[in-house]
Amino acid sequence: MHYYIVTGASRGLGEAFVEEILQKDHTVICLSRSINSSLQQVAEQRESTIRFEACDLSDTSLVLSGIERVLSSINFKAAEKITLVNNAGTINPIKKGGHANEHAIISHVNVNLLAPMLMSEEIIKEAEKYSVHTIIVNITSGAANRPIPGWSFYCSTKAGLNMYTQTVGAEFIEAKANMTTIAFSPGIMDTEMQTTIRQAEEEHFSSLEQFKYFHEKGMLRSTSFVAKTLYNLLKGPLDNGRVLDSNIETVEAMKKEALQNSIPYLIFCGLFVLFTFAIFITFQYCYQKEERSQVGDAEVTYQVEFQSMLHTMRSIRHDFINHIQVIQGLLKIGREDRAFEYVNSLTAEVEMLELPVKVNHPALFILLQSKWVRAQNDKVDMHIHIDPHNSFKKMNSIDLIKVLSNLIDNAFDATLLGTESERFINIEARETPSTYIFKVENIGPEIPKNHLSKIFQAGFSTKPEKRGVARGDGLGIIKKVVDQYGGSIDVQSNKHSTTFKINIPIKS
After folding, report:
1. If I label 21, which of 137, 158, 365, 406 is the partner at 20 to 30 A Cα–Cα?
2. From residue 96, how far is each of 146, 195, 319 by CA, in Å?
């Protein structure tokens, strides 16, 4: 029997994670202020067991009594595995130093730090008596790594939780215990906490407009996506004391423990090679149809794309070799169980490398597949919105590729200047009865207003010069294609993001 204990399970990430883990051989114990009837229905449908324990984590005396009830309901002798997920958390009070109510501060520290520590300590004590395989997951935040004005309590408690995780993890390693603890940062999710943040007073929270912008632009991750990521992560081997985030870094987080090649991964590598040759053939075919005057521009686009594909293939080949070497070592020392666990963990990574949208245009599909793989490798949060029924048949394939390839590459160059949590690209391509519309948005540096009239000039670039790398060709190529079709380009750039929107009229 696999026992799961989840705090804050009635809503948000906790609710989504519980729904993910409700399976026949799982017993899920939820600590929350209220009962979630929809989760009870899911458990009944899946022949799983779920129990709710009412508990106010802001009151340490209630936390201790709640833990006692949880422990008494677990058959430690029959338990094969116990997973504790300390998910409950609070962002309030959002106040500058010296302005918060003392009771609110105490409540905050109790929920975010003391409750997870008390839960972990009691579970460790009992699990040690029976040598039960135990995993403790502490839900943390990127705010633990940097000061955010107005969030002094939140940043501090999450930083404390990270240090507790790392220290206990080191103790598990030292004792060679059958236990693992990690901290997991889910990123910016669409939850009630985000609603609370957007309702904060601007005088106490200077980043208010930025978080409103994230919501308006649909940049918040769904709790179901993050829950699935966490669940897949827990299926594989984990590094004790590691602080992980939700950017699908499962393989990197496990390399020191084990690496294995899996059949899905081999299939992906083979398909990716085929994609590479397919794009080569597609470009060659398209070039033969173009007028001789356009060969120069097409060659630039082709070379940039081909070099990008080769770089990605080298990266995959490097990881592939590592997988084989380490799995060979695992099998030699007789750890077939760990090898099997790692095969399961790789499946999630392979799924994330597949293009999440259907695209019927062959050349466009190949282009977007290569950009999607690059986004995963570079930890860029990429969103693609394309109607699969749009064929863009009135536009030559090479021109379509020229426009979107250079726009996306330009977005990559800009967004990669930021931190991982700020890397974001949104791609839209749609067709109306009279117009093709292409829009690419990225988070990155603002384009100075005095440069907006120059960026489409051949040879002009806002990027620093780099030896052996041509600059200033991409946007110039786009301008030529758009002019050729009688279209228009609109550029909007501010401190939050930059958006290029191109309209191409459809000629009958």
Report:
1. 158
2. 16, 19, 46
As given in the structure block, the two tokens for residue 266 are: 């081999």
Centre a 10 Å sphere on the Cβ of residue 130 and count the other Cβ atoms it contains. 14
What span, in angstroms and rounded, lies between the C-alpha atoms of 350 and 264? 7
Nearest to 165 by CA among 203, 128, 122, 121: 121
φ/ψ region of 133 (left if φ > 0, alpha if ψ in -120 to 50, else beta) reads beta
Q: What are the catalytic residues? A: 154
Distance CA 85, CA 80 (A): 17
* pLDDT for the residue 220: 87
C-alpha span between 437 and 429 (Å, rounded): 6
Q: How far apart are CA 454 and CA 450, in angstroms?
A: 8
Q: How far is Cα 212 from Cα 196, in angstroms, rounded to an integer?
A: 11
Q: Output DSSP code: residue 395.
A: S
Which amino acid does the sequence have at 407?
L
pLDDT digits (tens, 9 = 90+) for 420-472: 888 999 999 999 999 999 999 999 999 998 888 888 887 676 666 555 444 55
Cα separation, 136 vs 122, in Å, equals 12
Helix axes 263-289, 397-415, angle to 10 degrees: 120
Short-list 121, 127, 122, 154, CA closest to 139: 154
Most confident of 24-33, 57-66, 133-142: 133-142
- Residues in the chain, how many? 508
| CA 484 – CA 505 distance, rounded (Å) | 11
Q: List, as one string, the DSSP characters of 15-41.
A: HHHHHHH--TTEEEEEEESS--HHHHH
Nearest Cα neighbor of 504 from 429, 442, 406 is: 429
Provide the pLDDT for residue 387.
84
The helix/strand/coil state of 387 is coil
CA angle (140 as vertex; 137, 143 as ends), nearest 5: 165
